[in-house]
Design a protein that fits this description.
Elements: H1 3-22, E1 42-47, E2 50-55, E3 64-71, H2 75-82, H3 88-91, E4 95-101, E5 108-115, E6 124-134, E7 141-147, E8 159-160, E9 164-173, E10 176-185, H4 193-199, H5 202-215, E11 223-227, E12 233-238
Parallel strand pairs: 6-8
Antiparallel strand pairs: 1-2, 2-3, 3-10, 4-5, 5-6, 6-7, 7-9, 9-10, 11-12
Helix pairs in contact: 2-5
């Protein structure tokens, strides 16, 4: 295989895997995500501050993955990134368009995103319901992403992906943050499970490394978490000057 063809091949399947990392939850029945402490996780990769585990899922040819990382940025910076509906383009590998839409608030909102796919694969788009909660006693923040594919009409130029389930857990540790990202996806189309499972490692590593870099940029500094009297997270706001 020539270098040019090898590069095109890698880009095609990185595009496919980028789709898997960001695709939403199916409209129909979805098997619950495995817990972070469940038996059966197998360590597949350890790169710098990122560790990737995978686990077979009953009734599925596609494995779930768990990514764990110690990020050298405070949780306030990370949440400033995560509440920005356009930040997908900054850190999620192959995300080329993202914006909020429809009704919602900090705790329960919607976003539309597009994943770039190399020719001849059609670009994928997806619709996410994003729910966020936090506990002041522990400082932990959890975000869950699930699909609402019928919230927006499909476009003929894009393929709607409708099966995935995602959970982000952010755990503060002084000026650092531990991230645990768990996801299981059933992609649209005839993608062989063995291929997807062999490629499921690289994209979360790239995305997490990018997230740490983006959260360190000036535009995401100077934010604070707002806690309610009940100890629940109410929002993320710029620190008053």
């Amino acid at each position: 295989m020539t270098p040019a063809r090898a590069h095109a091949f890698r880009r095609l399947f990185y595009g496919i895997m980028g789709l898997l990392m960001t695709a939403p939850v199916a409209a129909g029945k979805v098997t619950p995500l495995p817990s972070e402490q469940a038996q059966g996780w197998t360590l597949r990769e350890e790169t710098g501050n990122v560790r990737i585990y995978t686990m077979a899922q009953e009734g599925s040819g596609f494995e779930a993955f768990k990514a764990e990382a110690e990020l050298n940025v405070p949780i306030e910076n990370l949440m400033a990134v995560m509440i920005n509906p356009e930040s997908c383009e900054e850190w999620v590998h192959n995300c080329i368009e993202s914006h909020g839409f429809g009704p919602g608030d900090f705790h329960d909102r919607y976003a539309y995103s597009v994943n770039d796919m190399p020719w001849p694969v059609t670009d994928r788009d997806y619709v996410l319901r994003i729910r966020t909660r936090g506990d002041q006693a522990t400082g932990e923040i959890i975000m869950t992403l699930s699909a609402t594919p019928d919230m927006r009409a499909e476009l003929s130029s894009r393929v709607r992906v409708d099966r995935s389930d995602t959970r982000y857990r952010f755990i503060p540790d002084g000026r650092r943050t531990r991230l645990i990202w768990v996801q299981h996806t059933e992609p649209n189309g005839a993608l062989p499970g063995w291929l997807v499972n062999n490629l499921i490692i690289d994209i979360p590593v790239k995305s997490i490394q990018a997230l740490e870099e983006v959260a360190s940029k000036e535009r995401y500094q100077g934010y604070q978490l707002q806690w309610g009297q009940d100890g629940n997270l109410q929002g993320v706001m710029p620190t008053p000057r």
